[in-house]
Every structure is written in C-alpha cells, then in structure tokens.
C-alpha cells in the first residue's frame, strides 16, 4: 500500500505556471507507472500525463508542449510542471500510481487548479 499526497495547486492567471508535486509514503521505485489525471466539474476524469520507471512520458494532446511530468525516485515524488495555463485547465488534479496498469490502484486526494481568464 502507498499513500499519495498532492500539493502545489492554486489560483493562477491565464498564461501563468504552476508546479504540482505528488509525495509518496514509500518508495515509488517499484511503481513503474505514475501519472497525473484531472477532473473538471461535470466532466469525467481524464489522463493528463504519465511516466514510466524508465522516464518515458506520454501526454494528452491538450497539454502537449505545455506540461512536463517528471519523477524523482530518490525523493519518492512525481511532479507536473504546468506552463502557459489556460482556463480550460481548471480542474482537480490527481496523482496516480501503479504497476503495469493505467490507471493504477493508488490515488491521491487531489489538488485544485484554477486558471482565471
């Protein structure tokens, strides 16, 4: 079992940046798939970005070129750098982890990101 805790959300203007962090309660070295999801009001939760243990990444088309996912196994932390934010990025962002399946079984509690126009 592993607990994931997100931080770094907040209110930002269009074009601004935020960096989300996801701290795990134990080593994430064995969690080969770590990702960020988001859920806007009235919408389904969607995959934003995912990273495997080798550092390979994949992004939703809507965030390509603006968001960057990274992981620091030594710190048991996954990051999501979000640049050039748009109002449509407003959502609750969730960290997720697992082994071999997407999404994995481990979820954080979520952090709110609000982008004002």
Model description:
The strands form two sheets. Strands 2, 4, 5, 6, 9, 10 and 11 form a seven-stranded mixed sheet that branches. This protein has a four-stranded antiparallel sheet with strand order 1-3-8-7, with no helix packed on it. The chain is mainly β and 117 residues long. 0% of the residues lie in helices and 51% in strands.
Could you list some keywords that capture this structure?
mainly beta; 7-stranded mixed sheet; 4-stranded antiparallel sheet; 51% strand
List unreliable stretches of 5+ residues: none
Order of helices and strands: EEEEEEEEEEE
Strand content: over 45%
C-alpha termini separation: 40 Å
Q: Could you tell me the mean pLDDT? A: 95
Report on the biggest sheet: 7 strands, mixed
Shape: globular
Whole-angstrom Rg: 13 Å
- The helix count comes to 0
Q: How does the helix and strand content classify structurally?
A: mainly beta
Number of strands: 11
Helix content percent band: under 10%
Short description:
With 117 residues, this protein is mostly beta strands. 0% of the residues lie in helices and 51% in strands. It has strands spanning 4-7, 10-13, 18-24, 33-39, 46-52, 57-59, 67-72, 77-82, 91-98, 106-107, 111-116.
């Amino acid at each position: 079992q592993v607990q994931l805790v997100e931080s770094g959300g907040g209110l930002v203007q269009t074009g601004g940046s935020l960096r989300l962090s996801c701290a795990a309660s134990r080593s994430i070295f064995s969690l080969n798939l770590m990702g960020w999801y988001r859920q806007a009001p009235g919408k389904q939760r969607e995959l934003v970005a995912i990273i495997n243990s080798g550092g390979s990444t994949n992004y939703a088309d809507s965030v390509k070129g603006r968001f960057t996912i990274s992981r620091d196994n030594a710190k048991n932390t996954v990051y999501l750098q979000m640049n050039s934010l748009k109002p449509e990025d407003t959502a609750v962002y969730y960290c997720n982890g697992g082994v071999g399946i997407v999404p994995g079984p481990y979820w954080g509690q979520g952090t709110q990101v609000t982008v004002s126009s």
